[in-house]
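Note to self: keep these together.
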Amino acid sequence: MSLESTPAPVAQQGNRRRVDVARLLSAICVGAVMGSVIGRLFALTPSLYAGDFTGVWRAAGQVIEGVNPYRTHTEHLPYPLGPLAYPLTAAIAALPLATLSAWLSAALFVGLSITALAYSLLGGPPFRLLAFGTPCFVMAMSVVQWSPLLTAAAVIPPLGIFVSCKPNLGLALFARRPSWWIVGGSAALVAVSLALIPTWPIEWLRNIRGMTYYKAPIAMPGGALLLLALLRWRDEDARMLFVLSMVPSNLFMYDQLPLFLIARSRRDMLLLFAGSWLVPVVGHFTVPEWVADEIAQQTYMRAPTVAFLFLPALYIILSRPSASARPDIVDRILNRRLAMTRHRRATQTKRTGV
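Structure:
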């Protein structure tokens, strides 16, 4: 059959497949490069072990050995992280990496997570790729955090099976877009974990109760304004923002990576991009010189994170039209002047043709 006689739908499907293959190969390349960078860095610096993934990696190894990771003292171990802060579901998900060396497990986890994130972002508007240039991404990658994988799960439904590995982000992603992948995957991981260690939920809650550096954004100065996200509850981004503002998290950039999914235009992304860079700059100048402890320094990042990331995200959600067909209370009250400005611009453009 000649090219001229090829039915249009068949040709379109062929083009779509080529685009999908190119998207997948590009994502694999990005993930491989980032994973190699982390692997090389951690291999040359053995004291880093697997970064923040160390606790989960160790717990997975202890599960294989039949040891309860919540009853293990880590103070004497290299790269101590204190009591295990993750649910046992994270250790179950990490079992395939448990027998590898620490640096290799970190490299593979970062590589696979960023491959998934790159694949998810490459399927959307090009401006979303700016997320790779934010401190949130750099921090998440360098300390080997779960947020890249879970941000990808917001776009790629099958990855929802991992949301129970970090429940504070997982709840926000479920509120954004509930799916059976999240429900089924979480149920399966919880069932397996309970079969192995039935008491782990109680012991896990006991561990995290003493971790005071986790704070809810709503408790920060100006954080109460985030309740306004409820006015746009039908908007999936508003639901995610509200839950993220209510659950305790480490307001040290990396857990805030999902906020960049809120951007639906270049203006939105540039606003969040600029805000993400203001956080470390302002945070640097607010940390007193006498504060040397790293965890204590992180506390001075909380207010800038809320001011320059959460509140701009709220502004983006409230300043765009309602997700429903009819104007809501935000459109009628808060966006009235904005709507008039848009109308004037549209009329001027129509008249001038510019």
